[in-house]
Amino acid sequence: MSIVRSNIFDPFSLDVWDPFQGFPFNTNRSLTTFDNDTSTFVNARIDWKETPEAHVFKADLPGMKKEEVKVEVEEGNVLKISGQRSREKEEKNDKWHRVERSSGQFLRRFRLPENAKVDQVKAAMENGVLTVTVPKEEVKKPEAKANEISG
After folding, report:
1. What are phi and psi of 42, to 5 degrees?
2. What is the C-alpha to C-alpha distance for residues 15 and 139, in angstroms, rounded to an integer?
3. Whether 66 contacts 92, CB under 8 Å
4. Is 13:112 a contact under the CB 8 Å cutoff?
5. What single DSSP character describes residue 62?
6. 3-state secondary structure of 143
7. What are phi and psi of 36, to 5 degrees?
């Protein structure tokens, strides 16, 4: 499994990419953390905006409970958002006509800038939208000191 940038213009975005996803042959899946049938849910869409006070991430995760989602900081400054939606149990007498809702695991990583306060990360889930707030350190501007001109 390789890590690639989903947006080449954004040096902070990292996605997990499986180069064999969708191939008809069975690869050694023990090397990856995803199942073949999770391809539609692997790339959970997440918005990242920066305000003067914080970095704010919003993810649409309809139908998921907060217990199914994990928000972690790893390697000091990498925000990791992951989760798993279970597949609905099939009964013997059920006849499915269409299955379009995705299930399985998703994982997204974002490299945070140095001004992020990673020890103060807050996450909230409301109406299927996960909001992760990472406060920023105040940038201290160097004070200008007036020097007298002699002569």
Report:
1. -60, -40
2. 29
3. no
4. no
5. T
6. coil
7. -60, -35
CB 48 within 8 A of CB 110: yes
CA dist., res. 74 & res. 84, Å (int): 19
The phi-psi region of residue 144 (left if phi > 0; otherwise alpha if psi is between -120 and 50; otherwise beta) is beta
Q: pLDDT (tens digit, 9 = 90+) per residue, 84-128?
A: 887 777 778 888 788 777 778 889 999 999 999 999 999 999 999
Q: Which SS3 state, helix, strand or coil, does residue 98 take?
A: coil
Q: Which amino acid is at 119?
A: D
Tell me the C-alpha distance between 49 and 45, whole Å: 13
CB atoms within 10 A of CB 53: 10
- C-alpha to C-alpha distance for 128 and 130, rounded to whole angstroms: 7
Order of strands across the sheet that contains 54-60: 46-50, 54-60, 129-135, 122-126
DSSP H helical segments within 13-88, as ranges? Answer: 39-42
For the whole model, what pTM was predicted? 0.63
- Please report, as a single letter, which amino acid is at residue 109: R
DSSP label of 147: -
Instruction: Report the C-alpha gap between 118 and 99 in whole angstroms.
Output: 39
Element (H, E) at 134: strand 129-135
